Structures
1.
Amino acid sequence: MARILMIEDNAANMKLAVFLLEQAGHEAIQTRDAEEGIRIAREQRPDLILMDIHLPGMDGLAATRLLKGNFATRDIKVVALTASAMAGDEEKIKAAGCDGYIAKPLRYQEFLKMVGEMTAGHEPKQGN
Ligand code: MN
C-alpha cells in the first residue's frame, strides 16, 4: 500500500479519487489547500502527491515548485490533476517539476494505471 496525499478543492473529484485509491488498497490523505498540502508533505512524507492545478490561494504548479525545490520533499512524486487540455500546459506542468499528469474528468483505469506506475515498490503486501 502507498500513502497518497490528494490536494484537490473540488469535493466530487476528491470523493471519487479517494474512493478509487482506497479500493486499490492505498491510504489517502486529503486536503483542499496547497499550503496545508505542503505542510502535510513535509510532516508525513507521502509516497505520492496528486496535485490539482487550480486551487484557491496558491495554485498547484507553485506548490509543486516549492516541493521540488525543498530537500525534504523533492523526492516525493507529484502528479498533476488538470482539467485543461490546452496546448502548452504539459510543458508548464513538466517545467514546474511534476512527474506526470492526469486529465480530469478522472477515468478510473487511467487514474489507477498512473498511480500504480508512480507507486511501484509500494504494492500491497501479501496478508495486508
Ligand atoms: Mn480545483
2.
Amino acid sequence: MTRTVLFPGSFDPPTNGHVEIMRFALTLADRLVVAIGVHPGKTPLFSFEERVAMIRELAAELPDGGDRTEVVAFDGLTVDAARKAGAAFILRGLRDGTDLDYEMQLAGMNARLAPEIRTIFVPASPESRPITATLVRQIARLGGDASPFVPERVARKLTQKFAS
Ligand code: ADP
C-alpha cells in the first residue's frame, strides 16, 4: 500500500521551514502531495505557477523527492484535498504555542469532518522556528537579504521579483 501525506499551505514563498517538513514527509511516506491553498480575492506575491515550479525544484533536491512529490492546488477544505489526493495524513508544522493553539483547533475540527484522516504535527527545528513566509516577503520587499531563511533558488526569485 502506498502511504501518502498531504502538506497543505500557502508557500508564498516556500521557506527553509517548509523544506524541512517536506524532507521529513519523504522519510515518513511513499508519496508527498504539497497542496497550495488558492484563495480567491487574495493576491499572493508569487503566482500559483511560480510556487509550483519552486516547490517542484526544491522537491527534486530531496532524496528521491522529485519522483515522489506532487504539487496541487486546492480552494476548499483541507480534508477534501486530502481525500482527493488519497492521503491518510495531513502534515502541519509547529513553530510555537500560537501555532499549537490554532493547529489543535484545525486538527480537531478536521478530525470530526474526516475521522479517517489524521493530522501529524512536525516541530520546527531551532533554526526554522522564527521563519515565516510573511516576514520573508517583508524583508525582501524592503530590500533586505532573505537568504538565511529560504533556499538559494527562492532567494534569487525574491530578488528578481522586487528588482522588476
Ligand atoms: P498556512 O497559511 O497554511 O499556515 P504556510 O505556507 O504559512 O501556510 O505554512 C504551511 C505549513 O508549513 C504550516 O503547517 C506551517 O505551520 C508550516 N510552516 C511554515 N513555516 C514553518 C517553519 N518555519 N517551520 C516549520 N513549519 C513551518
3.
Amino acid sequence: MIRIERITAKLETDFVGREIYYFLKLSSTNTTAKEQARKGAKEGATIIAETQTRGKGRLNRRWISPKGGVWLSIILRPQINTEDAAKITLTTAVAVAKTLRKLYRLRAEIKWPNDVLVHSKKVCGILTEASLEGKTVNFVVVGIGINVNFALNGLPENLKTTATTLKEMLKKDVDIEELICQLLKEFEECYKQFKEKEFRNMLTEWRSMASFLGKKVEIVSFAERLHGVAVDVDGKGALVVKLEDGTRRKIVSGDVTVREA
Ligand code: BT5
C-alpha cells in the first residue's frame, strides 16, 4: 500500500503533490483528475490510485494497472496555447527518465512521444489530456503510469515481450513513496523550465535520452504508415523523420517502432 503520509513528509516540491487525492481503486486517475480540475483543484494537485479498473492509454487504448504500480495524474494550469500542450508530454518523459536514472541507475530512455523504456521495454506510459477553450488551454491533466513493484506476470501475455517493471529489472521491490517523491520533484523542476519558456533546454535533455534518434523507424498513425530515419524533435514537440525518398516530414501523433539497431 502507498503511504501518503510518508510522501507528504518527504516531499520537496513547491506545489506539485502538495494536495493529494488518494484512492484504493479508480476507473482512471486521469478521469478523476479532470473532475477535480473542473471543481477548481489547484495547480499541482495529484490524484493517486493503488489500482485502475479502466486505465487509459492514447486513442482509447487500455492501460493495465495492477496493484504495485504508480498510477497518478497531476493537474496543471499553464497559460499556453493548445498547440503547446504536446510539449508537456515530452517534459514529463524527461522527468520520469531522470527519476529512474537517478534513483536506480537504470539507463531509462525516451521513445517519442510518451514512453519511457528500459532495455527497450516499456516501463512507463504518459497520457496528457487538455481541456481547451478556443485557442487556449483551460487545464491539463498529465497521467503517469509506471510499472513498479509487480512481476511481469501481473501483465497480460501479449505485453510480456514489450513491457517491463522495475521489480523485474532490479530483482527487488523499490520504495514506492521515495519514487513518487522524486518523480514529483523532477516533474516540478522540468515543468518550471517549460513554463519559463526554456523548452529548448528541455529538448536538449530529451534528445540526450531519446535512444531511437538516428535509427530507422516505422511510424503508424491514423492515416498512414511511414518508413524513415528519426532525425529530431522540433521546437513544438513534433517528430522529424527523413523519409526513404529523402524528404523530411513532421509527425505530430503516431506510434514509433525501431526497425533496426
Ligand atoms: C500510454 O498510451 O502509454 C499512456 C499510458 C498512461 C497511463 C497512466 S496511469 C495514470 C493515468 N491514468 C490513466 O488512465 N492513464 C494514465 P499508449 O502509448 O497508447 O500505450 C498503450 C499501450 O501500452 C496498450 O495498448 C498496450 O499495448 C500497452 N500497455 C498497456 N498497459 C501497459 C503496462 N502496464 N505496461 C506496459 N505497456 C502497457
